[in-house]
Amino acid sequence: MKEIEKFKKLLEYFVAHLEYVNKSTNPKGENEYIIPILDKGFRKEGCGYNGDNIQRQIKGWDEYNVGNVGITIKSNYGNYKTKKCYLNWVGTGINIFAGWKGDKIDNLYIGYCYWWYSDYSEAFITRTISELELFKDNISSNLQDFCNYFMDEKKNYNNKKGEYYKREKEYYDSEKKEKVMKRNELYISLLRSNNNIVLTGAPGTGKTYLAKQIAQQMIFDEVKEKMTEDEQKQFNEQCGFVQFHPSYDYTDFVEGLRPKQDEDDDGNIGFERKNGVFKDFCARAIAKKSK
């Protein structure tokens, strides 16, 4: 069976199922799609994307080259005229919803479901049942366009592009950032109360990366994926890094005597006291605070 033919069957079943469970007058496709499976464990409701048996009722029409479509049917106090009933590309919120007129489905539309918000949003392409010419023998141009749009949305998602992918990524990035900042609050609290903290672990386990995140959150009140030029300058003014090694000692870190050529004598070498990197950093901090 061609993909467009499978897609037509899928839409017809979706409409037939919804009108049947909603007890619509003369539900479309009842004899073709519903009656034959009533004695085979017909599932009235369920989430097909989550492995519910309702998915078996669209078997043969749910697998496509770009992915699998799941069927979800949920009532709202016995009413099935709700956006809790939809077809979707499994693993995404790219959905097909039903638009009702009275007790009949008037149209189908493709839209995004932003499941991380309380509301669903955006309808991109809407076609009436008559425009799609469902429950007829032919494949209409409107049905082909509707199918192409739905397939293209999933292709974009597979290729990590498109509006839905962008918005989903923004959500996950934001959620990840929130978790990171919550974790960092413990380290920041310890650091502020003890004035130092020791991060331990084998090389390459992310200690320096974590230290930078903690510093960013203390400076900017957030962790930044990428800093602007001004933010980088501000960060460098308030944060410094030192890599210790076997020959690195107190005189390098705090202060020590350093050779100095005496300009008054011929080539004589003297010594002068110089700040190490840590004392230098502290001096800059004190100077900045006093302004």
Keyphrases for this structure?
single chain; seven-stranded antiparallel sheet; two-stranded antiparallel sheet; 2 domains
Order of helices and strands: HHEEEEEEEHHHHHHEEH
When the domains are counted, the total is 2
The poorly predicted ranges are none
DSSP summary: helix tally: 9
| Mean pLDDT level | 90
Strand content: 15-25%
- Fraction in helix: 40-55%
The main sheet comes to:
7 strands, antiparallel
Distance between the termini: 77 Å
**Overall outline:** rod-shaped
- The radius of gyration over CA amounts to 32 Å
Class by helix and strand content? alpha+beta
* SS elements, strand count: 9
Tell me the layout of helices and strands:
Layout: H1 3-21, H2 30-34, E1 46-47, E2 63-64, E3 67-73, E4 86-89, E5 94-101, E6 104-112, E7 121-128, H3 129-132, H4 141-158, H5 163-194, H6 207-220, H7 229-238, H8 250-253, E8 255-261, E9 269-275, H9 277-290
Antiparallel strand pairs: 1-3, 2-3, 3-4, 4-5, 5-6, 6-7, 8-9
